[in-house]
Design brief:
- This protein is α+β, with helices and mostly antiparallel strands.
- The protein has a single domain, classed as 2-Layer Sandwich (Yope Regulator, Chain: A).
- The chain contains three helices and eight strands.
- The strands form two sheets. A six-stranded antiparallel β-sheet has the order 3-4-5-6-8-7. Strands 1-2 form a two-stranded antiparallel sheet.
- The longest helix has 17 residues.
- The termini are far apart.
Length: about 150
């Protein structure tokens, strides 16, 4: 095993980087992360499941672009997407807290350092729950009151 590297970072005096150990879901020789591939395949199944629902719009893009462009929408409101190899669903705050408390999910941070309280990420290892959680999210978004956008 190789030695850890020390890296100078902004705001943190020294950060020790340890070489990653190979594990399930890690990148293979081609550099493709299996967890991300699995998440995309699982999400494709969800998209297919909602195909016949007239109130659900499938993803307009596969990756990148505007927030939610690669997710499922109910009546124009995002309710499920894949981010960083995990399913992200919009659920009532209490349900999110319940999933986080029992370690089924993690709070969703889209990358700006602020957690979105009605969003939770679910890892592919909980794939058996994805379908039910997507249904819950679909119902939640469909019944959630319309909020006015801030300007």
């Amino acid at each position: 095993m190789s030695q850890p590297r020390r890296l100078r970072t902004r705001g943190v005096p020294w950060l020790v980087l340890r070489p990653a150990r190979a594990r399930v879901g890690s990148a293979d020789e081609s550099g493709i992360d299996r967890a991300v591939v699995d998440a995309e395949a699982l999400f494709d199944r969800l998209v297919e499941r909602f195909r016949d629902d007239p109130g659900v719009t499938p993803p307009s893009q596969r990756k990148g672009g505007k927030f939610g462009a690669s997710g499922l929408k109910a009546d124009g409101k995002l309710f499920a997407m894949v981010s960083k190899g995990e399913l992200v669903v919009k659920l009532p705050r209490a349900r999110v807290e319940e999933l986080v408390a029992d370690r089924t999910g993690k709070p969703f941070d889209p990358g700006h350092g602020r957690v979105m309280k009605e969003w939770v990420t679910i890892a592919p290892r909980h794939a058996r729950l994805w379908s039910g959680l997507a249904d819950e999210a679909r119902r939640f978004v469909g019944t959630a009151p319309q909020r006015s956008r801030r300007r």
